[in-house]
Amino acid sequence: MNEAPKILIEGEISEHAVPRLLNYLYDQGATGRLVMLQEGVNKTIHVIEGKPVNVDSSLRDETLGRHLVKQGKITEEGFQKGVELMLSEGLQQGAALVKLGLLGPKDLYKAVRDQSLQKLLTAFSFQEGQYRFYEEVEFISRIYRFEFPLQMALKLGVYQYFPEPLLNQELKRVNDQPLIPLEGFQDRFLAFEPDDAEKEFVFLIDGNKSLVELINFEASYPFARKLLYLLLLCGLVGPGGATANSLRAIGAGEETEARVESLTVCADAPEVEEEAEVTIKESPDKIIEFYIQLKGKNYFELLAIGQDADDARVEECYRARLGEFARDRFPASVEPELEAKLEEINTDVIKAYEALRSAERRQAYLERLKEKTEQKKSASPLTAEKFLQDGIKSVRSRDYANAQKMFEQAVALSPNEPEYYSYLGWTIFCNEALDADEKAQLAKEKISQAIKMNPNMDSARVFMGKILQAEGDEKGAVREFKMALKCNPNCREARRELDNRGIEK
Fold first, then answer.
1. Of 50-59, 377-386, 426-435, where does mean pLDDT reach its minimum?
2. 181 forms bridges with which residues in the sheet?
3. Distance between CA atoms of 61 and 239, rounded to whole angstroms?
4. Is 147 left (phi over 0), alpha (psi -120 to 50) or beta?
5. CA distance 441 to 415
6. Confidence (pLDDT) at 268
7. The dihedral of CA 325, 326, 331, 332: what is its sign?
8. At what angle do helices 224-233 and 150-160 cross, to 10 degrees?
9. Long-range contacts of 70-77 (CB under 8 A, 24+ apart)
10. Are 411 and 438 in contact (CB under 8 A)?
11. Mean pLDDT of all residues in 353-365
12. Per-residue pLDDT band at 334 (split at 50, 70, 90)
């Protein structure tokens, strides 16, 4: 029996904000899962040696397809076709998009990486709810792993998504002593990839000015409050020359030591001559293309054998797959991230062989595979997605009464998915069979619920804007359209509404 994962820390997000949690885990060099729950929305940040490497989200709006639509990489029509293929053939969304020719395998890898980073950044918008960190390593074999430098993730998350009230609450923990740069400040500051204005601003941190005095420079440096928070949080500056543990700690009265990593390269290090290659090497792209398919393959597919293969065939294909991804088949100079992925591929190939190398083991694996397949078929999210797709088709044909029924079914099956509430609210508002005043109020309640669960969903903001516009609240409508564009700069509907009003974005 597997030992239950150890809970390292747990508490309320309102007390320990997401940036502080991530920085704490980084300082601890922790490996495990940070699970956060707010308004029924679940996010799991996978951390290895303190660095976030992948993020799971329960939000439909943060699936790969929706991410690509927001980025303008695929159209809404392409997304819908991908969903239909997923439902009909039981494919993963990425595989469906590749099969449709909307993405290439290499494009898919980059898209999944960018999507995971975006899920990490939007986690910074969590203000309430609970968190729990499970210290474990078992998850590592199940996930795609990406390299997200913590300092840049913190900067992007705080600059783009960290709520201002929570930022101000965090800064109140810092006393009014002058802020003084701490050891290694200059080199460590470069990890945030500062622009010229940020480099100019840090010269004001001269050991004589307090936090409040430095914030007063916001008129010239609008980012001042956020950058100061990052510097305090990561232990680059401190009040009176001491680390701001009141801002950084998780446990009551706990002191945390800032983790310092060397960012400099020794000037005297000898140059390494690359080994001359006498044979044509495989392109590193092959590693990327195979890696992105890896987690979607069962062990038979991984070794490229049928379920009726005998011991000899398993052995033959195992050796062939290992040879295909042997290190010496690729160039001597491969990026460290790809080195790690190549190692992971070979580790999974070995695991597949161990699971299938005898008839008894193959039979046991087939039984587990069958059980997982049945569980997947009975899972409600795909059923809810089917109701959503049927509802969208009804909206296109302006059959709002039927669309409302479809979205109500989707909500009933997946009550923690905000996008379903958003569509339901809009169709209630559009349903002419309902009382005008009552439907407007109910529609706003449903869409408000969606926004509360996911404040970064552009479609809900657009729906709310249109309802407010119909009610004559032009100021409120413009506010929502601007918020939609902030959530998704490629939101055509919000951009069109603002363009029609001659309003600058």
1. 377-386
2. 237
3. 41
4. beta
5. 20
6. 40
7. positive
8. 140
9. 70/458, 70/488, 70/490, 70/491, 71/114, 71/490, 72/490, 73/103, 73/107, 73/111, 74/102, 74/103
10. no
11. 92
12. confident
- Radius of gyration of the chain, Cα coordinates, nearest whole angstrom: 26
Phi and psi based region of residue 327 (left: phi greater than 0; alpha: psi -120 to 50; beta: remaining): alpha
Contacts made by residues 336-343, CB under 8 angstroms, sequence distance 24+: 336/147, 337/146, 337/147, 338/284, 338/287, 338/288, 340/145, 341/145, 341/287, 341/288, 341/291, 342/287
Separation CA 45–CA 22 (nearest Å): 9
Spatial distance between the Cα atoms of 401 and 405, rounded to a whole number of angstroms: 7
For residues 64, 68, 71, 77, the Cα torsion angle rounded to the nearest 10 degrees is: -140
Q: Which tokens belong to 449?
A: 């619920």
Residue 298: DSSP 8-state: -
Q: What is the pLDDT of residue 17?
A: 95
- Residues 359, 139, 70, 148: is their CA dihedral positive or negative? negative
In DSSP notation, 80-99 reads HHHHHHHHHH---HHHHHHH
Q: Where are the alpha helices (DSSP H) in 71-184?
A: 76-89, 93-99, 105-122, 150-160, 164-171
DSSP letter, residue 503 = -
- What per-residue confidence (pLDDT) applies to 447? 97
For residue 247, give the nearest of 354, 190, 166, 314 by alpha carbon.
166
**Residue 267 — pLDDT band, cuts 50, 70, 90?**
very low
User: 296: closest CA among 112, 94, 104?
Assistant: 94
pTM for the whole structure: 0.81
The C-alpha atoms of residue 14 and residue 458 are separated, in whole angstroms, by: 25
Domains of the chain in start order, with CATH, are: 6-148 (no CATH), 163-248 (no CATH), 285-376 (1.10.287.110), 380-500 (1.25.40.10)
